[in-house]
Amino acid sequence: MIKSKAIGLLKKISLLVFTFFAVISLYLNLPFVFLNNNTCIYIDNKENFNTFSANISEKTRFILPATLKIYAEFTNLDRHLAAGEYCYNYHDSILSMMRKIKYEKRIRHKFTIVDGWTYQEMTRHLASAPSLSEISLLTNNKLISSTLKLSENNLEGQFYPETYYYAYPDTAIDILQRAHDFMEKRIQMLYQESETQKFFKNPYEMLIAASIIQKEASDSEEQKLVAGVIINRLKQHMKLQMDPTVIYGLGRSDMTLLKKHDLKSDTPYNTYLYYGLPPTPICMPGEAALYAAAHPKDSNYLYYVSKKNGFHQFSETLAEQDLAIKTYLLAPVKKMA
What we know:
Blueprint: H1 2-28, E1 39-43, H2 49-59, H3 65-75, E2 84-88, H4 94-102, E3 109-112, H5 119-126, H6 141-148, E4 163-166, H7 172-193, H8 203-216, H9 220-235, H10 243-249, H11 287-294, E5 303-306, E6 312-315, H12 318-328
Antiparallel strand pairs: 1-2, 3-4, 5-6
């Protein structure tokens, strides 16, 4: 008799528990609980579940923190709250949201460092990248140099142009660290296999040359020719006389703004005034420019001039260069009939 009553009691308790969790499940499966469409929730590293549930309840209707706590304890979600950015639509349920967190289906973003960007251009774009923290640190060059343990104090040219994926709570410094590590490995590898070690004392000098090549030519084959010109001029103790270095020293970015008197500007980057390479890179060179600096095309060229079509005319002598200038830069513009 007592045994049958106990069994009956257990059945009732089981039914109540089942009913309770069925109601909770139904409750958490309700659609249209988010107050706004495309709601994003940010979970920090080691965030307390109580803080998280309070944040959720502010962004939803009908959902109480206590309900979330019960579900989380039942599924062990409260012990593993994966940091990240999770976004939801207006029609999503709390349960679908919790599943995304449980299986770490966080939102991923990407940031691309473009070949030829200066450090200033890169950080300006990075500062506007979505869901990236510690943006304010981008203005602290000394801190960044220290954090990244740079062998050179100047940040220019130290970051490899590539697309980098990230997710909250990644920081701006995280992106820079990865880009710098990639550039460091790549420049070291290319320098070890390069044919120009006797002209570039170390990988950093080769990086400087690659940055000039990047600004001088966009075609990969021409970049190798430009690299050859740099080597030839260094061998003959000639000034490099390359316009992008002058522009960088003046703090400009537009080649069309360069005037004749600018070539006399006294900056350490003016390769019309000073022999050898400038003191630092002038931009972030891409893979093709880095490769060209390591493997220049062998030639006798000492000069080149723009054809105004994205390509250049290369010359071995000053007389050839003068003729090329007359042909491509000083020739009268043909009028349309």
